[in-house]
Amino acid sequence: MTEIPTILKKIIDKKWQEIEERQETISIKQLEERFSNVESPRGFVRAIEKSIAQGRSAVIAEIKKASPSKGILRESFDPEQIAISYEQAGATCLSVLTDKDFFMGGNDYLREARAVTKLPVIRKDFIVDPYQVYESRALGADCILLIVAVLDDESLVNLNSLAHELGMDVLVEVHDQQELTRALPLNNRLIGINNRNLHTFDVSLDTTHQLLGSLPQDVIVVTESGIHTHQDVAAMRAHHVNSFLVGEAFMKADNPGEKLSELFSLGEQ
Ligand SMILES: O=C(O)c1ccccc1NCC(=O)[C@H](O)[C@H](O)COP(=O)(O)O
Predict the structure, then answer these.
(1) Ligand 1 centroid vs 136 CA: distance in angstroms?
(2) Which residues form the Indole-3-glycerol phosphate synthase domain (predicted)?
(3) Interhelix angle for 130-139 vs 7-25, to 10°?
(4) Residues facing residue 222 across a β-bridge
(5) Ligand 1 centre from 195 Cα, in Å?
(6) Position 1 pLDDT exceeds 50
(7) What is the residue extent of each domain of the chain?
(8) ipTM of the complex
(9) Distance, CA of 71 to CA of 104 (rounded, Å)
């Protein structure tokens, strides 16, 4: 029987094509030459540590116009305005989707959002090749996402080391025990537990609750996807999960920043 590719496989196939095309336009050497024109990374992990030390939830507020599972999330989409509203509402960091084909994102959105705030920004994309790590740094990203499900062990180690060498932080994302076992030897400070199964799109917050017991004390857990209510936030905080990556709930609100304040009551913690 022919294997039916999941959306994740389609995304990764398309990524390799995109990388090939971009390399023809601009080389790694040229990307490196751009580093001097972008501000040094802002300290993504440091900002999260600071929020947690102050007893606040560290909210990584996402800017995404669309997603494969939900289609268009927000018709009126202005990354600069959204970024400003998140910063005013007390977000700790920003997450900007740069994938164009499946999320209607863009590299310019990252540049624009970062330029109008002081917040550290993660480039939310599907990173599979060193070229994209250089590109992320040249864009001004403060952190990159590495999704364990789409990387073999060697690539995971190499991409993680390269990002750190270039001064960026890394959010290593897992969804199950097997992926977590592969992620732990990296000794990364930040581990994201994605509550969304990227093959089926099923979302369950139990994913975070179930994996928590397998994490060392010194790891900061970021719970990702499917956070919509006060109860969702409270259940995580009750288990000492204080870092949240939230997209859809904010993107569907008239005012994303107001929704952030309402969901996290940041002034009151
Ligand atoms: O969201 C999708 O449909 C999706 C499909 C395939 C790969 C990744 C996908 N999403 C990335 C994310 O996990 C979310 O953007 C992020 O965690 C925020 O989730 P949410 O708050 O549920 O928008």
Answers:
(1) 19
(2) 8-263
(3) 70
(4) 192, 243
(5) 9
(6) no
(7) 7-264
(8) 0.97
(9) 10
Residues 129-178: tens digit of each pLDDT: 999 999 999 999 999 999 999 999 999 999 999 999 999 999 999 999 99
Per residue in 2-40, pLDDT (tens digit) is 556 789 999 999 999 999 999 999 999 999 999 999 999
The arithmetic mean of pLDDT across residues 58-84, rounded, is 97
Which one from 51, 57, 194, 195 is the annotated catalytic residue? 194
225 is annotated as an active-site residue: yes
Write the burial class of residue 85 (CB in 10 Å: 0-12 exposed, 13-18 middle, 19+ buried).
buried
Q: Is the CB of 194 under 6 A from ligand 1?
A: yes
Rounded to the nearest angstrom, the distance between the alpha carbon of 200 and the centre of ligand 1 is 12
Dihedral Cα 38, 42, 44, 47, nearest 10 deg: -160
As given in the structure block, the two tokens for residue 218 are 């010194």
Q: Which of the following CATH numbers is that of domain 7-264: 3.30.300.30, 3.20.20.70, 3.40.50.970, 2.40.50.140?
A: 3.20.20.70
Q: Distance of CA 160 to CAs 13, 30, 125, 132, 197, Å?
A: 21, 21, 14, 12, 22
- Show the tokens assigned to 192: 């994201």
Rg of the chain's alpha carbons, rounded to an integer?
17
247 CB near ligand 1 (under 6 Å): yes
